[in-house]
Design goal:
Blueprint: E1 17-19, E2 30-35, H1 45-58, E3 67-71, H2 75-87, E4 90-96, H3 101-109, E5 113-117, H4 129-139, E6 144-145, H5 152-170, E7 176-180, H6 185-197, E8 202-208, H7 213-219, E9 249-253, H8 255-269, H9 275-290, H10 292-295, E10 299-304, H11 318-323, H12 333-343
Parallel strand pairs: 2-10, 3-4, 3-6, 4-5, 7-8, 7-10, 8-9
Antiparallel strand pairs: 1-2
Helix pairs in contact: 1-2, 1-5, 5-6, 8-9
The protein binds 4'-deoxy-4'-aminopyridoxal-5'-phosphate.
Length: about 350
């Protein structure tokens, strides 16, 4: 019975690393991706949900059967929901209305209470999902606030699990580690581990256009954020888990690049993942193109944080993409016309 897990939390991690073949074909680098969407809750955030709550329980801040509050773009909520199910806790998740319907419905179906706040206000505003989560945690007696943005157990969970796993899988034989930056936990914790192991590995944070993180890393001045569509990455403030001293480079990516790359990953590599995954790969490619001397012949490991199932109504939906002014590719036009002709009048071809 050695391979039987005691519960679902033990099935978190040990996700595969896969080589990209077609989308990286013409680049002078090798790109390997870590498939974090293969975690039981569908994202890398299972790691932090488990670690943050486990540590809080060890410190007595969270009791079995207690209440956990979190501000989440969805994935951390799912990670915490797994922990809550195993330990009989009640979770309350506060989200912004920018997040996909799939993520909201998923959290509701875990038996958690879900609160939706406007995305049109900045993080300091009392209606923001950050402020509302904070208030609920303060006012509900005995509630534990997981606080992935400031709680150091977030980045430490990657120091203890994601980093060592990648090191072991690659035998430390790579040059760059790239990840989209949201709370900063993934890039900061994993980079801390790699920097203790080797001076060869440099870390690359991917930041969407409209976020203040990349501009801040260059100017050390707080700029104004602007809206963008990709979910889970970028910020309009500086979370404590973004450890700028551990991040060697930042690269920029826009929504169009993020969504087309995400769709290409599925069509050309068979990798079904979320928008921040395409953003991480496209941002890495931007960095390679902008830094040819630095990157020539190098090996990159890029994190793919979550599953495409959470975005069927968005970036995998051509009508939504068109509404948002994004280019959508046309599938094999000649064959589509032929299929239309042959299939008959009452058959409908969906795009
Ligand atoms: N991608 C997605 C889809 C996410 O939900 C998050 C977390 N907000 C990230 C990337 C960024 O990871 P981190 O918070 O560890 O920086």
């Amino acid at each position: 019975m050695k391979s039987i897990k005691a519960n679902i939390l033990e099935a978190i991690g040990h996700t595969p690393i896969v080589r990209l073949n077609k989308v990286a074909k013409n680049l002078p680098v090798e790109i390997l991706v870590k498939c974090e969407f293969m975690n039981p809750g569908g994202s890398i955030k299972d790691r932090i949900g488990r670690h943050i709550c486990q540590k809080a329980m060890e410190r007595g801040e969270l009791k079995p059967g207690g209440v956990i509050v979190e501000a989440t773009s969805g994935n951390t909520g799912m990670g915490i929901a797994l922990f809550a199910a195993v330990h009989g806790c009640q979770a309350i998740f506060v989200m912004s209305d920018k997040q996909s319907r799939e993520k909201i419905d998923l959290l509701k179906s875990t038996g958690s209470i879900v609160v939706i706040c406007p995305s049109s206000v900045d993080s300091k505003h009392p209606d923001s999902y950050h402020s509302v989560a904070h208030k609920l945690a303060k006012e509900i007696p005995g509630a534990y606030y997981a606080d992935q943005y400031e709680n150091e157990d977030n980045y430490l969970s990657h120091y203890y699990s994601t980093g060592p796993e990648i090191w072991e899988q690659t035998e430390g034989d790579f040059d760059f580690f790239a990840a989209g930056v949201g709370t900063g936990g993934t890039i900061s914790g994993t980079s801390k581990f790699f920097k203790e192991k080797s001076t060869r590995i440099k870390s690359l944070g991917i930041d969407p256009e409209g976020s203040i993180l990349l501009p801040y890393s260059k100017t050390k001045k707080m700029g104004e954020g602007a809206p963008y569509l990709v979910e889970g990455i970028g910020q309009d403030y500086l979370p404590g888990n973004v450890k700028f001293d551990l991040i060697d480079f930042f690269a920029n990516v826009n929504d169009q690049q993020s969504f087309s790359m995400t769709r290409r990953l599925l069509k050309e590599e068979g990798i079904f993942c979320g928008g921040s995954c395409g953003a991480a790969v496209a941002g890495t490619i931007n960095f390679v193109n902008e830094n040819p001397t630095l990157t020539q012949g190098k090996r990159f490991v890029v994190i793919l944080p979550d599953s495409g199932a959470r975005y069927l109504s968005k970036l995998y939906n051509k009508t939504w993409l068109k509404e948002k002014g994004m280019d959508v590719g046309v599938e094999n036009e000649t064959l589509t016309l032929r299929v239309k002709e042959i299939s008959g009048t009452n058959a409908r071809i969906e795009i």
